[in-house]
Design goal:
The chain is built from twelve helices and seven strands. It is of the alpha/beta class and 242 residues long. The protein has one domain: Aldolase class I (TIM Barrel). Strands 1-2-3-4-5-6-7 form a seven-stranded parallel sheet. Helix 1 packs parallel to helix 2 (37-44) and helix 5 crosses helix 7 (130-141). The longest helix has 19 residues, at 171-189.
Length: 242
C-alpha cells in the first residue's frame, strides 16, 4: 500500500530515464495499488517494455460486491497481470488456498496472468514443514487447472520470514525451494508445465543479492517489494536479471 497517483508519476518519470527498454529478454511488471493504475498507464504512455498488474482481484464478476474490484475492471484499465495469494493477503485477510484458487481461475478466464504467491512462515520452516506447506499451496491453489494454464502463470516463492525483514534465504536455500516447487508442478501437471512455468523469488530482494539469486537454475525472476520503491534500486535489480 505505497504510492498514490502523484508519487507514481514521479517514480515513473525517474524510472523511464533508466533506459530499461534496452534490457532485452527480461519481462518487467509494475504492480501499483488499484487507485494508482490509471496514473501508471498514463505515465507509461504506451511503453510496451513495462507491463502493469494489480495487487489482487475479486473472485466475483461485476455486481453487488461493494469494495471489490473485478477482472473486467482490471482488463479495461489495461492490466496484464494480477498478484494473488500474497502472504499479506493470507495473513491479514484470511485468504486460503481454495479461495485463492477461485481468483486464479477468474483471472485466467479474463486473460490475466496470475502471479501466485506461496511460502512458509518461520515457525513452519523450523518445524520441518517447508515441503508440506509448499506442496499444499501448489496443489490446492492450482487445483483443476490444465497443464497449459499452469505453463502460462507465474509462481512467486516468498518465504514469509524474509519479507520486509532484511533477512533473505541464501541462494542455495532459495534454489532448493524452487527446485522442489518445480518438482511438485511436474508431478501434478507434467514435465512440460514444470519447464514452462516461471518461478520467482520474493523476500528482501535487493541490488546486492539479485544477481546471485537469479543465477540459480530454478529461479526465473524476482517479486520485488521495498527495493522497488526507488527507481534506481528497481532498475539495478532488472539489470541484474539481464
Amino acid at each position: 500500500m505505497n504510492m498514490g497517483p502523484k508519487e507514481a508519476r514521479e517514480f515513473l518519470a525517474a524510472f523511464k530515464q533508466e533506459q530499461l527498454c534496452d534490457c532485452k529478454g527480461v519481462q518487467k511488471v509494475i504492480v501499483p495499488p488499484f487507485v494508482t493504475i490509471p496514473a501508471v498507464m498514463d505515465a507509461l504512455d504506451g511503453c510496451k517494455c513495462i507491463g502493469v498488474g494489480a495487487q489482487d482481484v475479486s473472485d466475483h464478476d461485476n455486481g453487488a460486491f461493494t469494495g471489490e474490484i473485478s477482472t473486467a475492471m482490471l482488463s479495461e484499465l489495461g492490466c496484464s497481470y494480477v498478484v494473488l495469494g500474497h502472504s499479506e493477503r493470507r495473513q491479514y485477510h484470511g485468504e486460503t488456498n481454495a479461495y485463492i484458487n477461485k481468483k486464479i481461475k477468474k483471472a485466467l478466464a479474463a486473460g490475466l496472468i496470475p502471479i501466485y504467491c506461496i511460502g512458509e512462515t518461520l515457525e513452519q520452516r523450523e518445524a520441518g514443514k517447508l515441503q508440506d506447506i509448499l506442496k499444499s499451496q501448489v496443489v490446492e491453489g492450482l487445483a483443476d487447472l490444465t497443464p497449459e494454464q499452469v505453463s502460462g502463470i507465474v509462481i512467486a516463492y516468498e518465504p514469509v520470514w524474509a519479507i520486509g525483514t532484511g533477512k533473505t534465504a541464501s541462494a542455495a536455500d532459495a534454489q532448493d525451494a524452487h527446485a522442489f516447487i518445480r518438482s511438485v508442478v511436474a508431478e501434478t501437471f507434467g514435465t512440460d508445465a514444470a519447464a514452462a512455468v516461471r518461478i520467482q523469488y520474493g523476500g528482501s530482494v535487493k541490488p546486492g543479492n539479485a544477481a546471485e539469486l537469479m543465477s540459480q537454475p530454478d529461479i526465473d525472476g524476482a517479486l520485488v517489494g521495498g527495493a522497488a520503491l526507488k527507481p534506481d534500486s528497481f532498475a539495478a535489480i532488472i539489470r541484474a536479471a539481464v
